[in-house]
Amino acid sequence: PTARSAMRQLIPVVVDPVDPYGVYADVPAGTDRPGVRLNMIASLDGATSVDGLSGALGGPADHRVFSVLRSVTDMVLVAAGTMRAEGYGPAELPADTQDARRRAGQTPVPAIAVLSRTCSLDWKSRFFTAATVRPVVVTVADAPEAHRARAAEVADVVIAGERDVDLHGALVALGERGARSVLAEGGPGLNAQLAGAGLLDELCLTLSPSVVGGDSKRIVSGPSLDPTCPWHLASLCEDDGFLLLRYRAPAAAARRNVSASHVTVPT
Question: pTM, whole model, 2 decimals?
Answer without folding.
Answer: 0.90
